Amino acid sequence: MPLSKYLMTREQYDADCRDRLEEAHPSDPAAVARVMARRYPKSTEQAAEELKRRGLRIDADQLSRRVTQEFRQIGRNFVWFADDIDAVAEDLDQANRLTYDAHYRREQGLSFAEHAAVQKQVRTKRLAIMQQVADAAGGTIPDVADACNRVMPDPLEWDEAAIAKAVSLTREYIASQGVAR
Questions:
Q1: Which of 8, 83, 125, 151 is deepest in the core (most CB within 10 A)?
Q2: Does a structural domain hold residue 1?
Q3: Do residues 101 and 139 share a domain?
Q4: pLDDT tens readout for residues 86-128
Q5: Single pTM value for the model
């Protein structure tokens, strides 16, 4: 049975893993391919983390109670392959064991993909505003974050006056760090 639309599917999870790896290793596709090929088997803790990322609420102790006599082992450790994790995902979905994010998506009528697209748009807009401030202040996005995070609202709420204040705070922050740029 397919997972609810509020959850990350196997294909979406694999694509997300690949995207993260490509972001971390942009000039090394061979490394990305190696890591992708070696992601399984996983420990019980790693399998529980995957399920959480996919929108299902379970911890390693709860997951370890699902181990049966026929379960695969390496030494004394039980190992989880993608098909094992997918079977647990279906059970947890049927039992409505969703994370808060998955519950939110269900209440809003959003699929995982729709929610991810909205989050990406928000992130992109926030970074564009912060880049605008960084360029004006002669700094970087981390400089803007360090200078403004505790004293200003979210960059998505900044108007022209707030952007001017953020530029000023960022310049002051850069000067206080004593780093020539």
A1: 8
A2: no
A3: no
A4: 999 999 999 999 999 999 999 999 999 999 999 999 999 999 9
A5: 0.78
Confidence of residue 173 (pLDDT cuts 50, 70, 90): very high
Asked if residue 92 and residue 57 are part of one domain, the reply reads yes
Given a contact cutoff of 8 angstroms between Cβ atoms, the answer to whether 177 and 158 are in contact is: no
Strands (DSSP E) found in 53-175: 73-74, 77-78
Q: Which domain, by its residues, includes 46?
A: 10-110
Contact call for residues 181 and 139 (beta carbons, < 8 A): yes
Report the half-sphere exposure of 180 (CA within 13 A, side-chain side): 0
- Contacts with 178 (C-beta within 8 Å, 6 or more apart), sequence order: none
157 DSSP assignment? G
> Can you tell me the mean pLDDT for 13-37?
92
15 and 99, same structural domain?
yes
